[in-house]
Specification:
This protein is mainly β. It is built from three helices and 16 strands.
Length: about 300
Amino acid sequence: MFSQKDMSKTHFWMLQLLLLLYGSVIYAQEINESLDSLQNADEVSIDELNRQLENPLSRFWSLIIQENLSFNSGDAISGTEVSNVINFQPSLPVPVGESRMLLVRPVLPLVTTPVFNESGEKTSTETGFGDINVFSLYGPDKKDGLIWGAGLTFVFPTASSRNLGSGKYQMGPALMALSITKKWTLGTIIQHWNAIGGTPDRPDVAKTDIQYILRKQIQGKGMSIGMGPNISIDWTADPGNKVTFPIGLGITKTVKWGNTPWKLRFEPQYSIIKPEDYGSTWNIRIQVAPIVNNPFLKR
């Protein structure tokens, strides 16, 4: 159970996140004239907008709030424990020259995690900021077809507690390959990190994240059905604890609220492979993202 101190911390961080979301919505309404003007300017329908937003190098800005509610189990603990990560990850690509786009996307996590003793017994629950990830991609300015991107990815040890982060500075390559058509979005986004510094007494880090994307567009509905889970590989873990491989099935829909288009996603995921000692069995992913015009593009 949450202690009064845990609840106070949770309320504080949730308040900060709500204020951040409120500010994002106000900004979206100010910069976005309306979805109608967006469509008139770029001749973009709801279907087309929903499809283009699958591309991190899209011409549109999206202020993404992503919720990941995980149900964890394993041999090292008794029963199932719940953890939670809320990411604020604004996707704000900017044009480079006439035909390229550059994305530098920060991911700011608010983490709630159980804390265990050496016997695997839960002693408390802790909430606070996690390590910040900065993800960059450079690639062509394309709306569909085969789209690639390459860049670097970084992790900074910004966690507010030892239990909420790695304590290591990390960096590595980032790659993307997507095929976007009117019917399907298929592809992958890969990031890899190695520790390059940080607290000496913390464990080394060598991790790979592979997001694979398979979504079928539902024409005329501004909607798609499919999945985009993240395979996680911890190269420093013991055998049997290296890989988390989830599958999922979810719905993505783009709607208009007021003068602002929003992209909404609900996607339950189940791990067909997970660490034996402790890992996510089920994850519920929810995304809410107001969409705004990119002020760096000519209209």
